[in-house]
């Protein structure tokens, strides 16, 4: 039997797949079919009209926001659980080895948005690139062991770093120059709301900064003395 941690991991992976898709509506439809849920059933769980689900899936309605995606994923898992949880269990087993705790040090979703400027204070940050983009809202963060992530994560695994939304801070620890995380993000083409580097970074890598400028994503260097202090600052920032 899968536990809550595994179920939450499956939920984050599904939400990440939907929110980072070029066609979120098609992704919702694909996952709905994987869970063998009819549009009418999903609509009843969400307390909306089936036509709304149809409009999302067909692209007639604008892509759903973070809140709607979160509710849809919860409805998938809840409906499956009522039928015995076989689909969720299968995905929990499939992704059980993905995103292990030694790579993902912490992952949080914010109930309320946090401004980039406020998150900089939480990590004792120095701005390296794109200061003019710090007024955007962030809806979560993921803290990553950069060495293990770059070496071990597949493109599919990497998607799971984004949780329920790409509008989050990806925080890379054990960084020496910052080049590898920026290259990995550029290659995969999924841009977070902020990138934070933490580690033995004496000066910013010029190529890393250039990539951040091209991607138009705020790049921050955390001055926290240890990873533990970094996590503490981030956890205290959760609204």
UniProtKB/TrEMBL annotation:
One Pfam entry name: HTH_3
Coiled coil: none
Origin superkingdom: Archaea
Gene3D superfamilies the record matches: lambda repressor-like DNA-binding domains
Record-linked CDD domains: HTH_XRE
Chain ranges of the HTH cro/C1-type domain: 28-76
Protein name: XRE family transcriptional regulator
Taxonomic classification: Archaea, Methanobacteriati, Methanobacteriota, candidate division MSBL1
